[in-house]
Specification:
The protein has 62 residues and is α+β, with helices and mostly antiparallel strands. The chain has a domain of 32 residues. Helices cover 52% and strands 13% of the residues. It has 2 helices and 2 strands; from the N terminus they run αββα.
Length: 62
């Protein structure tokens, strides 16, 4: 529990969360930069999950 509080203080000190959010406008689409970063990270994790093979037992089914 203590580690989570310290981590939140460090992240809060690095990123100013009290200001207005930054938005990207592309035609009729408007998206916050934070949401765009999260979507890109999810795509990267999905690509890694597909690309990295599952471990197999020796002599087991492939």
């Amino acid at each position: 529990m203590y580690g989570a509080k310290v981590l939140s203080l460090i992240v809060g000190a690095l990123i100013n969360l009290s200001g207005p959010g930054s938005y990207i406008k592309w035609g009729f689409i408007q998206m916050s930069v934070a949401n765009l970063v999260l979507i890109l990270l999810m795509i990267v994790v999905l690509a890694l999950a597909i690309a990295i093979p599952f471990p197999h037992r020796p002599g087991g089914k492939k």
